[in-house]
Write a structure and sequence with these properties.
Blueprint (H helix, E strand, L loop, with lengths): L1 E5 L7 H14 L4 E5 L13 E16 L9 H5 L5 E4 L4 E4 L9 H5 L5 E16 L3 E8 L7 H9 L6 E5 L6 H7 L4 E6 L3 H17 L3 E8 L5 H8 L4 E6 L2 H8 L4 H4 L1 H18 L10
Parallel strand pairs: 1-8, 1-9, 2-7, 2-8, 9-10, 10-11
Antiparallel strand pairs: 3-6, 4-5, 6-7
Helix pairs in contact: 1-10, 4-5
Length: about 290
């Protein structure tokens, strides 16, 4: 089962939930893997101290156009659905804009003159680690200057060998990186804070997941810092609240020190275990066989 932990914006606490959920799942005997899919700014490793096992690189095919061979017919330009080809036929000028290219290969496919060649370019890397010498942890990072983290995210998910419980720490927002992460998930945990801005972003995330027909539940983080509008709205919409994390200075202190609250608090450990049980119940997925530590 794949569970994505996402949020409508950055800073709501999705990495806090992801890392504590990972630790609790591991400590409870679940065969679990954590993938940090926030390739633009991965930070799960600040809380999950793991040993690096291996690193692989992410390659993207980028087309180049040989103007000495090109007849400037414009067929590659017409075939590109992403407007990634700059084309001025009257001036016989044509080139590929890498930052817009999605490596679909359409331009090289339609070129009858062999003017379009595809070359591999490293756009990111995927690091494999082990938490407590047993639980797999995968971290992906896109290279600086690359326009899209999507190829790096997709490779990180594809390299995960586990078929049991996989936790995906999603990028914030609801744009392409979010879609690339949650489209593989069986269930999504949406982390939100109870403010007007937080409720607005939560609604956008929910609308997106409903269109994708992916089941989801909500974790309210920093509960008590705002009002009851979010909780009331969730009850009206019959959306499950999986967990409420209070606006607590002690949690903030632990987080600032790079510590997991579930390692120091039996209360929160029990709450996160209960959340895992609730997710399996809501998603109607079969629980994996627990391992003895």
């Amino acid at each position: 089962m794949k569970i994505a932990i996402a949020s409508g914006k950055g800073g709501t606490g999705k990495t806090f939930v992801s890392t504590n959920l990972f630790h609790v799942a591991y400590a409870s005997g679940y065969p679990v893997t954590l993938i940090d899919c926030d390739a633009e700014a991965p930070n799960s490793s600040q809380f999950i101290h793991a040993e690096t096992i291996s690193t692989s690189y992410v390659y993207q095919l980028i087309p180049t156009i040989d103007t000495d061979v090109c007849t400037f017919c414009g067929e590659c330009y017409d075939a590109c659905h992403f407007n990634a080809i700059f084309y001025l036929p009257n001036r016989k000028e044509i080139r590929v804009m890498e930052e817009l290219c999605h490596s679909c290969g359409a331009c090289s496919y339609v070129c009858k003159h062999g003017a379009v060649k595809e070359e591999s370019k490293i756009v990111g890397n995927v690091k494999h680690l082990l938490y407590k010498n047993l639980a797999p942890f995968i971290e992906c990072t896109m290279n600086i200057g690359i326009a899209s983290p999507v190829p790096t995210i997709k490779q990180a998910i594809a390299e995960c060998q586990s078929t049991d419980l996989v936790l995906l720490d999603s990028p914030p927002g609801i744009s392409c990186p979010f879609i690339a992460t949650v489209e593989t998930a069986d269930f999504v945990v949406l982390v939100a804070e109870p403010t007007p801005f937080g409720l607005n972003d939560l609604r956008l995330s929910i609308e997106t997941l409903q269109q994708m027909t992916i089941p989801f539940g909500v974790v309210i983080n920093r509960d008590g810092m705002g009002n009851q509008e979010m909780e009331n709205w969730l009850h009206e919409q019959s959306i499950p609240i999986l967990l409420k994390i209070p606006f607590d200075i002690e949690i903030a202190h632990l987080y600032a020190e790079g510590k997991l609250v579930c390692e120091t608090s039996e209360l929160y450990r029990a709450k996160f275990v209960e959340m895992i049980e609730s997710i399996y119940a809501y998603s109607q997925q079969e629980k994996p066989t627990l391992c003895k530590k």
